[in-house]
Amino acid sequence: MQAIQYPEPLPQHVAIIMDGNGRWAEQRRRPRLFGHKAGADSVREAVETAREVGIRHLTLYAFSTENWQRPGLEVKGLMNLLKNYLRSELDTMRKNGIRLECFGQKDRLPDDVRKMLNRVIIETKDFSKLHLNLCLSYGSRAEMIRAVQEIGRQCEAGELKPEDIDDQLFSNHLYSTGQPDPDLLIRTSGEQRLSNFLLWQLSYAELYFTDIKWPDFRKDQFIAALEEYAGRQRRFGKTGAQTEGVSTA
Ligand code: IPE
Ligand code: IPE
Ligand code: MG
Q: How far is the CA of 112 from the centre of ligand 2 (A)?
């Protein structure tokens, strides 16, 4: 049997704003939570696809600091779904060598969700095939302010001088410490904004927007995003010729 060819180069790290569950359900005249449930199946498929094609880091925006403002029943439903997801996926993560981490304010999550989350994080901490970062009660500004506060405290304690602060040091105080920045950001449902997601880490990411709503974003759509990424030229400030290694001196 011939090995399946995936688009190259592959991003090392993909970040996804999983948007459109509510509208997907509304179009079907069903409650929003029906959309979130279908969205959980897309999460499973995205994780499986990432593992299969060989992406090493996958960061999923599941619940933002702003999402706490939604109706209490929707928040409760989402938290329940999250707990069920974690409980049902632990075995698969073990089997597939997936390491789970959480980016966000864990202390704001309900006790039962936090306990389940901590359990999965601890039980998968030695795996390295795929690093899965679930963003829960996550906001990029809150993340950066927390980093600045930590750094400030170290300066105050005399452990650090302000001139020691550089990109690397700042990155080390973010939830994503030790992981490469995302190469590709995907947002579903037609919205073209960042919604307070990884503002520092996405500095040089390629952006991919699709009208497909998250519950319909499955393996084929993920591969289409990877194909589009493979065709982009990432210049990081250089000229196209420099990037291609062509001498124009
Ligand atoms: C994304 O879908 C899931 C969360 C933000 C939790 P939405 O719930 O935002 O769906 P729309 O944008 O209202 O359609
Ligand atoms: C962003 O989606 C957050 C998540 C996908 C978890 P939202 O639906 O909350 O974003 P806005 O409010 O439309 O910008
Ligand atoms: Mg939305």
A: 24
Is 23 near ligand 1, meaning CB less than 6 Å away? yes
User: Quick one: which of 174, 175, 183, 195 has its CA closest to 18?
Assistant: 195
Residue nearest to atom 11 of ligand 2 (CA): 195
* pLDDT tens profile 6-57: 999 999 999 999 999 999 999 999 999 999 999 999 999 999 999 999 999 9
Domains of the chain: 13-138+181-232 (3.40.1180.10)
Burial of 211 (0-12, 13-18, 19+ CB in 10 A): exposed
Answer for the pair 44, 29: CB distance below 8 angstroms, yes or no.
no
Q: Do β-strands 98-103 and 206-209 pair in parallel, antiparallel, or remain unpaired?
A: unpaired
Q: Chain centroid to CA 44: how far?
A: 14
Nearest ligand atom owner, CA of 217 = 1
Choosing from 21, 41, 67, 216, the catalytic residue is 67
Q: Does 68 contact ligand 2 (Cβ within 6 A)?
A: no
Residues 146-183: pLDDT tens digits?
Answer: 999 999 999 999 999 999 999 999 999 999 999 999 99
Query: Residue 62 belongs to what H/E stretch?
Result: strand 57-64
- Secondary structure letter of residue 136 according to DSSP: E
CA dihedral 96, 102, 103, 109 (to 10 degrees): 150
